[in-house]
Amino acid sequence: MPLRPAVAADLDTIIELIHALAEYEREPDAVLLDRDELRRHLFGPRPYAEVIIAETEDGQSAGFALFFHNFSTWAGKPGIHLEDLFVRPELRGQGYGKALLIELARLAVERGCARLEWSVLDWNEPSIQFYKALGAEPMDEWTLYRISGDVLGELATRH
């Protein structure tokens, strides 16, 4: 199964896959990315995230994994946070998602990471079952919090 690190020439494909993911997650209007900012954040002098592209045998994009490093203070080691994993609906069940997760696990081990983690929408039962089948464990005792948009800006200006 062909997998490869994304390069700047893949930007349009990545954006198209992000939009397809948003459709799948029932949030088609939630994608607010700016193309130039995404290019800079993925392929600029200080990349904040990485992308692995899965391809069909004839070189068409099948899906992607977008990830970045985090850090475990308790383990004293980095980890990998999988922000998004997406396989085109018509190609699901053919091993692309599994191959992407295996590659991320390989990278985590190669880079000395303590863990590989991600979030999944609670209604996404097919993905939950897929992850559990690979040995992933839900972290039910943790609640994700987020500050964004105007609230983030307001908090940043507090003294």
Average the pLDDT over all residues and give the rounded result: 95
- Radius of gyration from the alpha-carbon trace, in angstroms: 16 Å
Which series of helices and strands comes N to C?
A: EHHEEEHEHH
* Total discrete domains: 1
- Could you say which overall geometry the principal axes of the C-alpha atoms support? globular
Measure the end-to-end span: 52 Å
CATH superfamily: Gcn5-related N-acetyltransferase (GNAT)
In CATH, what is the class?
A: Alpha Beta
Q: How many E-type strands?
A: 5
What's the story with the biggest beta sheet?
Answer: 5 strands, mixed
Strand content: 15-25%
The CATH architecture designation is 3-Layer(aba) Sandwich
Structural class from helices and strands? Answer: alpha+beta
Total count of helical runs of at least 4 residues: 5
Write down the CATH topology. Answer: Aminopeptidase
Structure description:
- The chain is of the alpha+beta class and 159 residues long.
- It has a single domain (3-156), classed as Gcn5-related N-acetyltransferase (GNAT) (Aminopeptidase), CATH 3.40.630.30.
- It is built from five helices and five strands; from the N terminus they run βααβββαβαα.
- It has helices at residues 11-24, 35-43, 96-110, 125-133, 149-156, and strands at 3-5, 50-55, 61-72, 77-87, 116-118.
- The chain has a five-stranded mixed sheet, sandwiched between helices.
- Strand 2 and strand 3 (61-72) form a beta hairpin.
- 15% of the residues are buried.
- The mean pLDDT is 95.
List keywords for this structure.
about 160 residues; alpha+beta; Aminopeptidase; five-stranded mixed β-sheet; 5 strands; about 35% helix; globular
